Amino acid sequence: MLKPQFASVDDVRERLNAAGYLTDHAIATTVFLADRLGKPLLVEGPAGVGKTELAKAVAEATGSELIRLQCYEGLDESRALYEWNYKKQLLRIQASKDDDSWDEIHDDVFAEEFLMARPLLTAIRNTHATVLLIDETDKADVEVEGLLLEVLSDFQVTIPELGTITAARRPIVFLTSNATRELSEALKRRCLYLHLDYPDADREKAIVLSRVPEVAEQLADQLVRTVRALRALELKKSPSIAESIDWARTLVALGLDTLDEQAVKDTLGVVLKHASDHARASTQLKLN
Amino acid sequence: MSGLLDREIAFLDALRRAGLPVPLSEVLDATRAMGAVDMLDREGLRAAFAATVVKRSNHRRTFDTLFDLWWPAVTGEPTTSEFLGEGEGEDGEPGQGNGPADPTAMRDALRDLLLKGDEQALQRFAREVVSTLGRSDAQPGRQSWFAYRVLRSLSPETLMASLLEAMLAGQERGGLAERVARQTITERVKQFQEMVEAEVRRRLAEDRGAEQVSKTAVQPLAEQVDFLRASRDDMAELKRQVLPLARRLATRLTARRQLGRTGKLDFRRTVRASLGTGGVPLVTHHKPHKPHKPELVVLCDVSGSVAGFAHFTLMLAYALREQFSKVRAFAFIDTTDEVTQYFTPGVDVAEALQRMSTEAELVWFDGHSDYGHAIEVFAEKYPEAIGPRTSLLILGDARNNYRATGAQTLKGLVQRARHAYWLNPEPAAYWGSGDSATQPYADVIEMVECRNALQLQEFVRDLLPQ
């Protein structure tokens, strides 16, 4: 069943802002559509631009339970969907008395009691508002995508022994991906798509200011512009929003109120995590 | 509503013609999304379409260009003239090409706007200058607009010096502050140029219909651009894509290798797992397959005509280093030298290419491609490079300046190698024309057409065994 959580695009924006996530118009509209059309939202973009944060903020803004499925290589059905608790089943069989007929035991061991629900099934069965976050979908094997198709298009799970379980209440679903591999067309077709990129200067400044309120506006401005100059350098790993925030925190902790060459040189390790990037930035920004 | 629906269908059709896959189910989604958002909110509409039909980030540019054409923000002439007040007020027909307003005053206005970085004002300014500076009467009764006219008379790049001056406001030149300011200005100038171009397209679309303009407005995707015809911008874009491309290929290749799970039985893990089921081994565990990793030898032509292609492919080969047990690279123009040492892990690729072209000994006679001599030298100097585990990859257009081909020597190399391929960036239709020596080579080695990044990707995927 579809129960929209948001009344309008502005409502999305206000409530996400209140939850500490500054959106722009495109993000707010896309989240609104995902909620309104009841479709999963695939969020793609470089690491550290706030993909996971978005899902968390939506959960907080709507007062929903956040259920998270972290994908990794080798993730399978029994970790993602459900598993029979075979140890308990074995115990049940061993404890059965001689007069229990096989039919009885058979029906008995495949009952709810022996079913261990994993994140996907839990999200489907929840009767209260739920946000399901399938994190780093691109890390999982291709077979997992097939598994997701039924869940994401019909919001149902088929368990051979129990039948089909349909969602009592549709969760809002977020899938995130770093685009290390192309997800299958079938999966993409079932999702709305949002590409999160590094934000424009104004929004990034606002984010830094809201996350690190101690930082002076002048310094935040300087910091954001420096980070943008770093991003233009074709580094191995460009600094993302997460790094900007860390950098602001570092500067505050060190009690620096202006970002001059010495300060950048001393704290560059906070934003750049590769030795070669470090060397490159130092020469290009003429820090030496 | 039906007029709106027709417009939507035509728009989605234009997207399809530009190469975006838009299946019917997405058309339905887009229509439903259109109904859910406020139609007067243009950016909301853009986001709604983007969410439903654009499923790849590299399609986004194309989408934005077409969206601006089909759903323009404004129509017609700018009604107010807030920036060019004096210039336009007096003459009713603002269209004598070179514009009525004083160019110096306009440059000053642009300079102030770039300094302030107010996007909306810049947008309005772009609209006004296109209608005054960009117009020319192509034929009587028919107007045309040109972005280059606007950009030439304003030449925003030349404002850099005075903008820097103003932005740095007395700070020391040459250091970090200048670099950061320069970046900010470059970004804003680029933004302004894009605004002008978009505005020109919009005016043209009003005159000739969005359909007509959208055919020419869209640039092909970087991965579909021919290596040999790629502009500097295309090449830069391609080079930026090497790492993500290599990462994607690498994950897919690893995934393919892990697909077969029929390795030897892992006795220890199986017994360990059986303890959970009362000693009955319900599930067997297997050791993973040891992947077969081939050695790769790349021999590439780095002469001017194919340099872009060779650089891109070398970068890709090195980015994929982990997929091979060993990678060796050799470059030649008319003689061959090993260039492996320039590509050590962690080194900056642009620098490596730079060092390669200055330090390696690639020219022996006159600096024109000589495949025959290059192959002979390679076979003579590095006989140990090719072995039974080696995949040999030759990159070049085989344009040999009518010299000896050395095909027999190449035949010997190919026979020693496990696999051997020749990647040719020229379209197959041109092979054998003029000084192209493809025929003698194609007899001894499998020659593959590899015109763009997409074809290269497919080739690499097929190269590695399962």
Please explain how this structure is put together:
The complex is a heterodimer of chains A (288) and B (466). Chain A is of the alpha/beta class and 288 residues long. Chain A has 3 domains: 9-77 and 118-195, P-loop containing nucleotide triphosphate hydrolases (Rossmann fold, 3-Layer(aba) Sandwich); 82-116, no CATH class; 201-284. Chain A has 14 helices and 9 strands. A 5-stranded parallel sheet of chain A has the order 2-5-8-1-9, with helices on both faces. A two-stranded antiparallel sheet of chain A has the order 3-4. In chain A, strand 6 and strand 7 form a beta hairpin. In chain A, helix 1 (9-18) crosses helix 2, helix 10 (201-211) crosses helix 12 (241-254) and helix 12 packs across helix 13. In chain B, the strands form 2 sheets. Chain B has a 6-stranded mixed sheet, with helices on both faces. Chain B has a two-stranded antiparallel ribbon with strand order 1-2. Chains A and B meet through helix 2, strand 1, helix 5, helix 9 and strand 9 of A and helix 2, helix 3, helix 10 and helix 12 of B.
